[in-house]
Structures are given as C-alpha cells and as structure tokens.
Design a protein that fits this description.
Elements: E1 9-13, E2 16-21, H1 24-31, H2 37-41
Antiparallel strand pairs: 1-2
C-alpha cells in the first residue's frame, strides 16, 4: 500500500503539524538539485573581500610533573 500516491501525507503531534511523508521521487522534486558542502559554502563574487587575521604568538612553557 502506498499512502503517498496522492501527494504528501501530513503527520501531526497532538493535533499540531510536525512532519510530512513523501515518496522518494516527490522528495527529490521538492528539494531540487543536491549541492555539495563546498558549493553550499561558496560565496561567488566575494573573492575580493580582504580577510586579514592578526598574528598570534604561541609560547612554549615548561611543564612541572612533580
């Protein structure tokens, strides 16, 4: 039995909408093309932004193991 054949199925939690059930094909149609993490984080046209970090000095310390 395929209860999603007529579209999305709404699921409620104590009368409030909480989730939706869809077929795999419908989910793919709704979400569109899948993007990679790199594509999602990319900022096209923003490569000219100056990003300067202050230099951090890390000093070594002696350890007292007594």
């Amino acid at each position: 039995m395929n209860i999603t054949k007529n579209g999305l199925v709404g699921i409620t939690d104590r009368g409030k909408p909480s989730d939706a059930l869809a077929t795999h094909d419908e989910f793919g149609r709704l979400t569109g093309k899948q993007r990679s993490l790199v594509d999602s984080l990319a900022m096209p046209g923003q490569s000219a932004i100056d990003f300067v970090l202050p230099r951090v000095e890390i000093r070594r310390r002696d350890v007292d193991l007594s």
